[in-house]
Amino acid sequence: MRFFCSILVLTFFTGLSWCQDSHPAIEILRQNCWDCHGNKTKGGFDLRDPELPDYFWDSLISDDEEERMPKDKSPLTETELAIVKDWLGMADRPHFPEHWAFQKLPDLSSSDQGNLIDRFTSDIELLPSQPWPQLVRRYYLALTGLYPTPEQAAMWHDPAQATALVDHLLSASAYGEHQADWWLDIARYADTNGYSQDKDMHRNVWLYRDWVIGAFNADMPWRDFVRYQIAGDLHAEEHAPAVGFLRNSMDSLEGGSVPEKFRIEQIHDRLRTVGQGLLGLTVHCAQCHDHRFDQISQAEYYQMFALLNQDTEAYVLHPTKEQKQLQNQLKQKVLKQVQLAQSDPKLQMDYLHWTTQREYWHYPEPTKIFSLAGYGFELQDNQEIFAPVGRNGGEVVYEISLDTPVPNITALKLQILPDPGNPYGSLGHCVNGEVSVSLIEVLIKPAGSADSEFEVVRLSSAETSYQGAANQIVDGKKDSHWGYLGNGPMLQRSVDVIVQFANPIHHPIGSEMKVSIHQRMGYKRNIGRFRLGLTAQPPAYQTGVDAVPYELQNHIENTDTSIQVNDNYRDQMWEAFLQRTNVQPYRGEIDKLYTQWPHGNTFLGFANGPVQRNHHMLDQGEWDQPLDQVTPGIPVSLHKGQPNTRLDFADWLASDQNQLTPRVLVNHVWQQVFGTGFSTTPGDLGHSGASPTQLRLFDALAADFAQHGSFKQLIRTIALSKLFQQETRTGKQPTTYEISGFPRFRMRAEEIRDNVLLVPGALNRQIGGPSVMPPIKGTLPMGSWTFPWNTRDHDRYRRALYTYWRRTSPYPFLNVIDAPDATQICVRRERSVSPLHALATLNEEVLDECAYRLAQQVQQQPEKTRLDWLYLKVLGREPNTAERNIWQDYSHSEVTHKEWYLACKVLLNLDEFTHHQ
Fold it and tell me: d(Cα 221, Cα 709) in Å, to the nearest integer?
């Protein structure tokens, strides 16, 4: 009876997500009772407890509809009840097993020899090996994404060379590009921000793509690969671009949008990406409520959320090695000028006087900070105001309200400060760190006069610690502006702008002052960090404009009779003295040197140092609906410790305590090689995901991968297995992974394009660098505007990996053939079938040009061998008899270029060419 019932239930529940060796009653209870008594304990007991209460069985057979379980579901059938009763009566009753994905990886015996996959498939009948010439093409395509040229294929003439061939391909630079292709889907790589302002929102993110390619080519251990993508900036400078994995979220810079809302949305997206891409769990389901299937509560979700909510987004400078060398050379030349100045006796007294000047400025705490452009301001220590990159219109205005600290105010100081959240750690949001101010306006309302109107404060003049037409900011005209321009370290120093009032303000202490800072240069030159000072001193005593810079004041101790400067900052102090007091000729020489300063490229990263924020659960995930406060951490079902920082989180993801990530990465790689993963839901290995069809093999590979840590070794094991080397499976392809026969599946869109470029020799093999825009016919329609793609030089033939990826309108050819739009993580591309695919490959401009070029090459061959040459070039083989009969009219010399051009198009569009097989 027990055997019959077990077979019956296993027939009913074919999609088992628990261990398939467990008692069938467990699956019945999982399907019906787990939601309440498994993930969320209700009714006073947990199905995972060894002892279940007596009323558990009574509730299953109760005649009272209110008492009978399962709640709000159909009652168990007689057959199901019999199976559960049988299970409850067992003396050694098997308990609910831990879900397969959370179980500890097996311990593989070190004494086992040979290919790991072959050991676990030795009892399965496999198809014979693929003929060697076709197997060579499979190796090339699976490991590099590119077919071999006839010359390359001819180098490998013996199956005994399989190991050497695989090692050769794994060492090729094309290997890293091919692996990066699927990983960038997970990282939702794109060159623009997304949303409605996508057309103007280019951002430098290609350094992340180059880092990923380099990591795969260098065979970076998977633990480091994962760790750096979460916290590379906290490990080493060369790995800082890796945090683009987190920063690749969409962002809106549209005027009127709320910055904090979109910042929170970005963190939700980052956690979803980490969850699906690295943990294989749909953790984002707990954003609004406790997870229905996996043991993740909403509170635990926001604990993980808090781990990623401790940073300030920034554009970070990343110069090349050559640029760093030039920077060091320029620094040495600047230092030489500084040392010459220090030895000049005429300057030593001036320097002493400069460092002993005292400021007579008060810096009141702002009572209100506002911007119509949607900036989200943060008030920091010492009354400093930080404005993260905001949403900009044609004009950005910062409005700051202050309570006056002294009577008889004579001047206002705008102190613009460097910040690590700005490009290069500079002054503004511009890609080169520059800032610009068009106009400053000041209003005042006397203390105690709430009903009175603000009065306009007349401004007479302005001066700055940097040369420029500062008076233009007080001329009442918005079209003129003062700007702080420069290169390199010049933009990492504070700048003072002092605005003189025409007449002192005699209102009492506590009067409300409103300062408006107009910036009409758009977001490119908006101020990032600043503070406002007020003084009652006459202009002769307002020494702030040429005093010691704000960021250096902590390194100097002044008394009435002496000065002590920290030796580590003495050279910086002298350089600032030469700059601010315009000492010649040293100042001129230093300026000349800085004009040669190489900026380098920026990447999407984080500012230095964590931000102290309170972390809360959010009602339905809404940014402005905080609930209970939480502390950073990882769900207890995954980890018993309590990581507190992003660095801790990265270390845990890469640790032996995490059993999920090795499985997830192996499934991703297997999916890339065979078209389908062990689990067909690579972003969900949890309770609601698809169970692996070859769990023992899957876990063995994951355990081996976790131990040796090498992507290349994993792929080498796959490629040299009998499983990989089988003949291509014919007939209808299964929807789940089938072990017998190599699957036949269509290439990714990028692979199709790359190989069409490869055949006539057009492919540009250059590695890395900024994205390119290969041409298409006409322009890309974007509603009411157009966006031309006009890369006309050799860059138009780069691998599709380097194509500029615009979220709202990706490159049409790739988009038509199922490439994702990068609005969110993509762990598995769909393979649709549409006539649009053929139209794309037949008419895309660059591919059309390749067919034309290939036709020219065909006509240069001897007349009798043209068809054979073309088949070998495109398909890697000679035409068979049936094919020769089809093309028999092409055997004479009168065949025109146009006819060969059409023939080339046909061959380049055959399934044999566009499919892995």
Answer: 5
